[in-house]
Amino acid sequence: MNYVIIGNSAAAVGCVEGIRSRDKTGGITIVGDEPYSVYSRPLISYLLLGSTDEAHMKYRSEDFYEKNQVRTFLGHRAEKVDSAAKTVTLDDGTVLPYDKLLLATGSKPFVPPMAGMEQVKNQFTFMTLDSAKALEKALTPESRVLIIGAGLIGLKCAEGIAARVSHIDVVDMADRILPSILDEEGSAMMQAHIEKRNISFFLSDSVAQFTENTALLKSGKILGFDILVVAVGVRPNVELAEQAGCKVDRGICTDDTCATTAADIYAAGDCAKSHDITTDTDRVLALLPNAHMQGMVAGANMAGGSELYDKAIPMNAIGFFGLHIITAGSYDGKAYITHAPGVYKKLIVKDDLLKGMILIGDIKRAGIYTALIREKTPLDTIDFDLIKEHPQLMAFAKQARKVKLAGAKQEGDA
């Protein structure tokens, strides 16, 4: 069997591990457009922060490819997928035949059109190791930095460079920071925490006109800057999937085996849609743990398995300047909110199920809440009043504790 993987991030690693769990000898080839061995993208802000280095950013050890007998074409781009001939053509003309193909093509920064942006000389995105290195070269202690986007990428960039520049302004059209993962109360708490680091926010606003070193906002405010970082969002890389005849709808459409609509082609990671069990909708869940799990399922099935990727939920574990956040699931339902100094907890319940959570500050034992969401545990089978305040296994029935602690079979299991 000849396996080809386009992409070299978490989903690709998961795919290799999934294949090797069932097929120890089949040929595996990875094509990656970056020249580096697989690294953890969320760590690029910590590289600029100085709390990690490139060696510690590696998502797997340097010998990962060799140990798993993987041939690599790093620093090369896949230009064409011919699903009829079952070949992948690279930018240097190399043609790779495949029996099974994984599209783990990831996403790219979305840079919206903004008037005068072509005049800005020092402009960057913040998604790859190379983009972080380029930004780092431009930083000086006197730099005034303007970041467009108050989401996860923009704020991780701000955290990474805050101690190395004079000031940071962040502009976003949304009315709050981190709008994709936090409610209004959680967002306000995190914004107040971040603003202590010489970072200013201009929300419900956008750039009307750029000059080389100024941004005129639609509100009329004028912001001077030396460096511009655009972190508005990302778009899935779906061009190869479209070329190969896969169904695409704001992401590559997959079933619960991670197969696309094209024969012998699978997809995983930030380019692929999956089924969000908390909202019962299909959408891209661009999260590293999900990408790895999705890749593992795809790899196992490419090698003849029958695995299902059927417990996908949106989930984020992230921190800014020492204040940590864990969110998961959806926020549609009845909310149970707990406050304490430096702590915010919101649990969302609907139809006797825990559907979502926001934890800020105190994130201990968040895994219990996550498991309740992912496993769709009926709340009337546990002591939820106890778990709301103190997540612990004692809130579960005795048999359920055995299952969680020792892998015991539940009643009715074969």
Automatic annotation (TrEMBL):
<dbReference type="InterPro" id="IPR036188">
    <property type="entry name" value="FAD/NAD-bd_sf"/>
</dbReference>
<keyword id="KW-0274">FAD</keyword>
<dbReference type="Pfam" id="PF07992">
    <property type="entry name" value="Pyr_redox_2"/>
</dbReference>
<dbReference type="InterPro" id="IPR016156">
    <property type="entry name" value="FAD/NAD-linked_Rdtase_dimer_sf"/>
</dbReference>
<dbReference type="InterPro" id="IPR050260">
    <property type="entry name" value="FAD-bd_OxRdtase"/>
</dbReference>
<keyword id="KW-0285">Flavoprotein</keyword>
<feature type="domain" description="FAD/NAD(P)-binding">
    <location>
        <begin position="2"/>
        <end position="295"/>
    </location>
</feature>
<feature type="domain" description="NADH-rubredoxin oxidoreductase C-terminal">
    <location>
        <begin position="314"/>
        <end position="377"/>
    </location>
</feature>
<dbReference type="InterPro" id="IPR041575">
    <property type="entry name" value="Rubredoxin_C"/>
</dbReference>
<protein>
    <submittedName>
        <fullName>FAD-dependent oxidoreductase</fullName>
    </submittedName>
</protein>
<dbReference type="GO" id="GO:0016491">
    <property type="term" value="F:oxidoreductase activity"/>
</dbReference>
<dbReference type="Pfam" id="PF18267">
    <property type="entry name" value="Rubredoxin_C"/>
</dbReference>
<dbReference type="InterPro" id="IPR023753">
    <property type="entry name" value="FAD/NAD-binding_dom"/>
</dbReference>
